[in-house]
TrEMBL record:
SUPFAM superfamilies: S-adenosyl-L-methionine-dependent methyltransferases. GO terms for molecular function: methyltransferase activity. GO terms for biological process: methylation. Residues 1-16 have a biased composition (Basic and acidic residues). It comes from the Eukaryota. It comes from Cynoglossus semilaevis. InterPro entries: Methyltransf_16 (IPR019410), SAM-dependent_MTases_sf (IPR029063). Keywords: Methyltransferase, S-adenosyl-L-methionine, Transferase. This is Methyltransferase 21C, AARS1 lysine. Residues 1-28 are annotated as: Disordered.
Length: 254
């Protein structure tokens, strides 16, 4: 067993760790374990020549929010297809602070939705949600979202491609989509699209919109983004626990 990626923002949950079956062993499957995480990864051991190429394997986790079991599949083919700690912090915050972020009947857009947990919890809390991410993440995101919301929510969430960009006016004209909340969890880390991310947040933040951004601070660039976020939005800190922070930003134009 290899230990990796622990974090302290995990709710209680059950694990259904798939056992390695004899036929999996020839593919070189390993179990990777971390506090609160069980992931099965193929390809870490060189497979025999006759073995089929396995792109990724799936790990299934069950979370408990809003009185529901939420079954999430993760994949290891993208950053976005695994659960990041700020998603858990944000779900817990949304569930326990409904008077501060009232999602009942709210129009919600999630940026960088990843596995979809935040969008699922927002839907269970009564919001009309659009979960967005890059194309590579979308099929896993869609499957997670639909599996956990069908028959449980007032409105089935939408799942769409949205690539952060300076130029969203053509694809998403201002005023056509009016959101009460933009949700974003752990979208700030080491990548080349931080300015595009801020531009995207600003694009969708109209009068009456609140950007709820949860982030585990890891790098100096995270602090730079935070400063730029504060310049772009009227900002308040909703939650802080060590390096886990949840900010609320509202439009400076309003
Ligand atoms: C660190 S993951 C966080 C995923 C999820 N919010 C969570 O907390 O578990 C960052 C997410 O942002 C998405 N992302 C990264 N760059 C992006 C871009 N340029 N446009 C849109 N989404 C992007 C990734 O695909 C990924 O789902």
């Amino acid at each position: 067993l290899i230990r990796c990626m622990g974090d302290s923002h995990r709710p209680s949950r059950d694990y259904e760790q798939p056992e390695i079956q004899p036929e999996q062993e020839h593919k070189g499957a390993l179990q990777i374990s971390a506090p609160g995480r069980e992931v099965s990864i193929n390809q870490l051991v060189q497979p025999p020549l006759w073995a089929p190429k396995i792109i990724y394997s799936l790990a299934k986790e069950i979370y408990h929010y809003v009185g529901e079991d939420i079954v999430i599949y993760e994949t290891i083919d993208s950053y976005g297809a695994i659960m990041w700690p700020a998603a858990l912090a944000l779900c817990s915050f949304l569930e326990n602070n409904r008077e501060i972020v009232n999602l009942q009947g709210a129009q919600v857009l999630e940026l960088g939705a990843g596995t979809g947990l935040v969008s699922i919890v927002a839907s269970l809390l009564g919001a009309s949600v659009t979960a967005t991410d890059l194309p590579v993440v979308l099929s896993n995101l869609r499957a997670n979202v639909l599996r956990n919301t069908r028959g449980r929510c007032r409105e089935l969430p939408k799942v769409d491609v949205l690539s952060w960009s300076f130029d969203l006016k053509r694809s998403h004209p201002t005023g056509v989509h009016q959101y009460d909340y933009i949700l974003a969890a752990d979208v700030v880390y080491q990548h080349d699209f931080l300015e595009e991310l801020l531009a995207t947040m600003k694009h969708f933040c109209g009068p009456g919109t609140a950007v709820i951004w949860a982030n585990k601070v890891r790098l100096g660039s995270d602090l730079t983004f935070t400063e730029n976020f504060k310049k772009a939005f009227h900002t308040s800190l909703l939650f802080e626990d060590g390096d886990m922070k949840i900010f609320k930003g509202t439009c400076r134009r309003s």
